[in-house]
Amino acid sequence: MSDRMHQTRLEQYQISELEIQTRKNLFELSDAELEFLYKYRLVIDGYLEEVVSHFYTLLSRSEYVGLM
């Protein structure tokens, strides 16, 4: 992951390196995949509402995730 992108996320969300690594592991995301997502973020932004909706639909199906 680029240093600039990495630093921006740390500053924006005020989360530790360990938390970032844990979240990457949970979503099974590699640095290469994160770079790809960052590169195409403007395209992805056009579909963000659909992506978030789909994400929460998947979460709601999981017996291990309790939603508010």
Automatic annotation (TrEMBL):
It comes from the Bacteria. One of its GO terms (molecular function) is heme binding. This is Uncharacterized protein. The lineage of its organism: Bacteria, Pseudomonadati, Pseudomonadota, Gammaproteobacteria, Alteromonadales.
